[in-house]
Design brief:
With about 450 residues, the protein is of the alpha+beta class. The protein is about 50% helix and about 15% strand. A hairpin with a 2-residue loop joins strand 4 and strand 5. It is found in: Endoplasmic reticulum membrane. Belongs to the DIPK family. It is a single-pass type II membrane protein.
């Protein structure tokens, strides 16, 4: 009887085992078919969009409109006539937004436009008014002051700043326009207007005269503008930034001679630049600048290890941030706008206009915490300085920055001190003179 029972159980176990194996195989096969189906659909739906042929066709159309006098820019001559702009590959295409890699006079650049066609942008009403006022062959012309006025209004409207705001760019940019003391062609005004309708261009153009922590715009042709090529971050890379990709960056490298920097040595230096960027964005403009989409892919580094914001579609100055946050709500969850959050006032069912967290808190949570985790640090994780740094990062990630400003400043100062000490410790074997040279490389180290 027992033998029969054991035999039955053994047989049952084998059957269950076989069924489990079969189930796993079928599940794997179904997953494989599903993923391959997605790839097939994706390729068929989007293969015509982000291809070399499509990209070159778009650039040819831009050059045709340049030759017709419809659009212009300081990049057009090299792109359409001299052949000094060499197309490399398509990087991104979605809903008309086109991003391409190219080389301009031997320097890697990224060509970008929010919309594919120049005609897709809203026409400048000022030109239509000029036509109506002057008519064909009319003598009425636009003065540089007219251009400054309309450009200023568009910039402030795009950034969500009040008309009376003390914005720096229109003064700087306006001064350049005034110095020209000439009228502007229809192609120049139409091209400027198409660029100003692109929030990212406006943002980068505003900030690049004020900070080195944003990507630089190098030139434009019609609605396309060229941005410096930088080594972007990767969510899948434990070091986030790749040293190998720095070789493509056009900025000069401070690491020469016998000096060599490893990925592990790079981390505290880049972290210091993150802290410098945060402090700069919060205190050095007319309004605080909020980053609502903080992830490695939205940042890059130059060869001098300066952190650069390369995607500012979700960056907002304080006035616009308040308008975004102040919405109807029933709980705090309704007041989350990506990485920018506020609290729900349940007596009014309205989200507070003031941000509860901060750029620093989110950077500590999403970037610093993985960077300085024991997994990444390995054998160094147990060292006293590393343990103290991990605790400071954890406190920074959990702090309610919007409500405890004094504590936030103290935590930021602690992080800066620990990172500087870590760099000094790592470079101690290179001698005092060499250490001073390395500390001089990045402005974030000059306290």
């Amino acid at each position: 009887m027992r033998r029969s029972l054991r035999g039955a159980l053994r047989c049952l176990g084998v059957k269950v085992c076989r069924r489990s194996v079969l189930l796993v195989v079928l599940l794997w096969l179904a997953s494989w078919l599903f993923l391959n189906g997605l790839v097939f659909v994706h390729r068929n739906m989007f293969s015509d969009f982000c291809t070399d042929d499509k990209s070159k066709e778009i650039l040819q159309r831009v050059c045709a409109e340049y030759q017709q006098g419809v659009l212009t820019g300081d990049l057009c001559e090299d792109l359409c006539v001299a052949g000094r702009v060499e197309y490399k590959r398509c990087l991104y295409y979605e809903n008309g937004k086109k991003v391409m890699a190219a080389s301009w006079r031997g320097v890697p650049v990224v060509l970008k436009s929010k919309l594919e066609n120049f005609s897709s942008y809203e026409a400048l009403a000022l030109l239509e008014y000029q036509d109506a006022a002057g008519g064909p062959g009319g003598e009425e012309e636009l003065s540089p002051l007219d251009v400054v006025f309309y450009a200023t209004l568009e910039i402030k409207n795009s950034l969500g700043l009040e008309t009376g705001t003390n914005l720096t760019l229109p003064r700087l940019w306006g001064q350049k326009l005034k110095e020209n003391e000439r009228t502007y062609s229809r192609a120049e005004l139409a091209s400027l207007w198409a660029l100003l309708q692109q929030e990212e261009y406006t943002f980068l153009r505003v900030l690049q005269d004020l900070t080195h922590h944003v990507a630089k715009i190098l030139g434009s042709c019609g609605h396309f503008y060229a941005v410096e090529y930088l080594a972007a971050g990767h969510a899948w890379d434990q070091h986030i930034f790749s040293l190998e990709e720095l070789t493509l960056s056009p900025s000069p490298s401070p690491w020469s001679g016998q000096e060599k920097i490893t990925a592990r040595d790079m981390v505290p230096r880049v972290a210091l630049s993150f802290l410098e960027m945060v402090e700069h964005f919060e205190n050095d403009f007319s309004h605080s600048l909020h980053l609502c989409d903080i992830k490695p892919e939205n940042f890059a580094i130059r060869k001098d290890l300066t952190v650069v914001a390369i995607d500012v579609d979700m960056a907002f100055f304080e006035p616009k941030m308040r308008d975004i946050l102040e919405q109807n709500c029933t709980s705090d969850n309704d007041c989350n706008f990506f990485d920018c959050i506020s609290k729900c006032d349940k007596t009014k069912n309205r989200c507070g206009p003031k941000r509860k967290n901060s750029n620093l808190q989110v950077i500590c949570e999403k970037i610093f915490r993985p960077w300085f985790s024991p997994t990444l640090l390995g054998a160094k994780a147990g060292l006293p300085l590393q343990v103290e740094l991990q605790r400071a990062v954890q406190e920074c990630a959990e702090i309610d920055s919007g409500e405890d400003v004094k504590r936030t400043r103290a935590v930021r100062k602690q992080l800066q001190d620990l990172l500087v000490e870590l760099i000094q410790e790592d470079s101690g074997n290179q001698g005092e003179g060499q250490e001073h040279k390395m500390r001089r490389v990045h402005t974030a180290l000059n306290f």
